[in-house]
Amino acid sequence: MKKRILLIVMFVGATFLLASDGLYAGTEVKDEIRMENHAYDEHKKSIPVFTHKKHATEYTAKNPDLFKNGCGECHHDDDNKPLKELQEGDEVQNCIECHKKPAYMRGKKAKGLTKEQKLEYHANAIHYNCKGCHKLFNKKMKLKSKDKGAAPRTCKQCHPKQ
Length: 162
Ligand code: HEC
Ligand code: HEC
Ligand code: HEC
Ligand code: HEC
Fold this sequence. Notes:
Elements: H1 2-20, E1 33-34, E2 49-50, H2 52-62, H3 115-119, H4 122-140, H5 155-158
Antiparallel strand pairs: 1-2
Residues 48, 50-51, 54-55, 59-60, 67, 73-74, 126, 129-130, 133-134, 137, 149, 151-152, 158 line the site of one heme C.
């Protein structure tokens, strides 16, 4: 009997640990996500706040010609196929589960790495996704980085000075 209780306690404990670590699949389309992945020992930059719901609804829906894949503009499967049919309530894996290495490789450190190798790094995959779309959007809308309604492209705009 005692053994069983111990096992249950261990199981619940492990579940909490996993959840607090961010290494889990979520189902809620949160309004805002503080991008503070716990796989990093420490964050060198300030924590970006990502307006998830606005991105998932307004921003992508506002530009259906530009963003044909809906949720799949950012969420994909392990073949990198966009999850176009994703809906609120579906389980979504965190990016870190596949882009496993918690670091940002650029400059000298990134020298010689192929595109595939860079994408193994979490921050490289994230930046590629966020900045790639922002660049495309601003270009299409003929907006400069500082213009109103432009999507942020500089480090400070996403990682504000604290
Ligand atoms: C512009 C990019 C983008 C779009 C569009 C988008 N998401 Fe996300 N979503 C993200 C990012 C980034 C995360 C955080 C993932 C992480 O922390 O690894 C996330 C997380 C999630 C999570 C998990 C939240 C949690 O608790 O961990 C769910 C569920 C989700 N999205 C559902 C959706 C659905 C449904 C849609 C379409 C209606 C959608 N997303 C559209 C980028 C996007
Ligand atoms: C189930 C595993 C899995 C998850 C979860 C996942 N990815 Fe990927 N992702 C991949 C694979 C596989 C590729 C292709 C890698 C390659 O070409 O080496 C890829 C490629 C990419 C690329 C390059 C796209 C291109 O056009 O070449 C970006 C950017 C990216 N992922 C960002 C993200 C972001 C942001 C998230 C979380 C919202 C995420 N990924 C979640 C597996 C995943
Ligand atoms: C599919 C395209 C797309 C992707 C991917 C994307 N964004 Fe955006 N983002 C936009 C657009 C479009 C705007 C400008 C919307 C406006 O102001 O009308 C924007 C604006 C923003 C803004 C300023 C406005 C606000 O809501 O805070 C921030 C910050 C931002 N994005 C962060 C991110 C981050 C972080 C990621 C990656 C996790 C990301 N974005 C990925 C399209 C995208
Ligand atoms: C569009 C928004 C955006 C822009 C622009 C951006 N970042 Fe990030 N960056 C993010 C997000 C989101 C993460 C993921 C943080 C997490 O999930 O823990 C990240 C992660 C990182 C990380 C790894 C985590 C850490 O804090 O150590 C570094 C380093 C980093 N960024 C540096 C930069 C630098 C340098 C620039 C400018 C050249 C830059 N970023 C521009 C959104 C952005």
